[in-house]
Design goal:
Layout lengths: L8 H10 L12 H11 L39 E5 L2 E8 L4 E5 L13 H4 L4 E5 L16 H16 L3 E6 L1 H12 L4 E7 L8 H7 L5 H26 L2 H11 L8 H8 L7 H12 L8 H5 L6 E6 L7 H10 L3 E6 L5 H4 L1 H12 L14
Helix pairs in contact: 4-5, 7-10
């Protein structure tokens, strides 16, 4: 969930005014850019408390499903499976047999956010759910994060672990990671499904500003002062967001039906935060990564996509409404759109409906001949 929502209204207002991740705060910002910054601070960080050190006193996680008729993935504090990628430990879950489906979580979540989807999808498919680097049970690597890091991770996961054409399914940040991975390795991606995906269409005004020459004042005075301000404010954000009651409140703000905001969900978000690098990763994600969102745009990625696309969209999402899904469908005609009366995470809020729609769409995909990994 967005950690900015965990602040008091007065502090949140000051952050909103300052737009602490705006690289050029002295310049005028267009309405379109303001919308993107607002989404960066709120929408893309759909579960952005998992990289925050937690003081939560762990409660026993009940195994009985709170969604009638939908089986739930057992919660394991130690995680499931691990894969070493570029020297980093990567967590993933795998279940079932059949054509593979790879599930990619949103900002701050983990493979456990697919708790109601994995068991059902695994009845017909071999299902993988991976934790992106910096999130969940995967290592909190202190690196420079951008979309290409997760693209490379997913691409290598397909090569090393899945080893055959798969469908990529992603929520929020995971949706954009799925898209860039699909363009990075089209031979091993037979389809992509997005659930309230992150990413924005390009804006000429933002591009023009990014191409402006950096003045000595900006480089040697404004930027250093801005970094100090960022660390102070994000330190407050970090401290605020580790409060269990605040985490639950933020979760409920994006789940229109809050029945599934339970101990399992809260624990799956807070437990991975024990890593000592969590604070630095959080800072880097909220600044270095977030401020470069316009570097990779939906139109540039979709223009390279060559497989069927499915949009599973929660129309009641307070951060990413149905207009974005319609725009994606208009831009990329090979798209199927299914709408739900749900918030930002429809796969966990209305899993039965999402599972049904996803399985029906998967059944329409023509099986692809297995790619030769030697040529990838």
């Amino acid at each position: 969930m967005s950690s900015i929502c965990a602040l008091s209204p007065s502090v949140r207002l000051e952050i909103t005014k300052a737009r602490l991740i705006d690289p050029l705060p002295l310049y005028h910002r267009s309405k379109c850019e303001m919308n993107r910054r607002s989404f960066t601070a709120k929408g893309i960080v759909a579960s952005g408390v998992s990289v925050i050190e937690s003081t939560l006193t762990a409660k026993p996680v009940q195994e009985a499903s709170f969604t009638p008729g939908v089986e739930r993935l057992p919660y394991k504090p130690e995680g499931y499976n691990y894969w070493t990628w570029r020297g980093h430990k990567i967590h993933y879950v795998v279940q079932g047999e059949g054509s593979p489906v790879v599930l990619i979580h949103g900002f701050g979540a983990s493979a456990f956010h697919w708790r109601y989807n994995i068991p059902e999808l695994a009845k017909r498919h071999k299902v993988y759910a991976i934790d992106l680097l910096g999130f969940g049970w995967s290592d909190k690597a202190v690196i420079e994060y951008d979309a290409l890091v997760w693209r490379d991770q997913v691409v290598d996961f397909l090569k090393d672990i899945v080893k055959e054409p798969a469908v990529l399914v992603g929520n929020s940040l995971g949706g954009f990671a799925a898209l860039v991975a699909a363009t990075g390795l089209p031979e091993l991606v037979s389809g992509v499904a997005l659930l309230n995906s992150a990413g924005q269409f390009s804006d000429a005004n933002v591009k023009s500003k990014q191409q402006s020459e950096e003045t000595p004042l900006l480089k040697f005075v404004v930027k250093p002062l801005k970094e100090i301000f960022q660390r102070i404010v994000l330190g407050i954000l970090f401290w605020q967001s580790k409060q269990p009651a605040r985490i639950e409140s933020v979760l409920k703000s994006v789940y229109k039906n809050t029945a599934n905001v339970d101990d399992y969900l809260v624990e799956s978000i807070t437990r991975p935060a024990a890593d000592p690098n969590a604070g630095e990763v959080y800072y880097r994600l909220m600044t270095r990564f977030m401020m470069n969102q316009s570097k990779y745009t939906l139109d540039s990625v979709l223009s390279q996509l060559s497989c069927p696309l499915l949009l599973l969209w929660g129309d009641l999402d307070p951060w990413v409404g149905p207009a974005k899904a319609k725009k994606i469908k208009e831009f990329y005609p090979n798209t199927t759109l299914v709408n739900f009366q749900a918030g930002h995470c429809p796969h966990d809020e209305v899993p039965d409906a999402v599972n049904k729609a996803l399985l029906e769409w998967l059944s329409t995909l023509t099986p692809q001949p297995q790619a030769s990994l030697q040529t990838v």
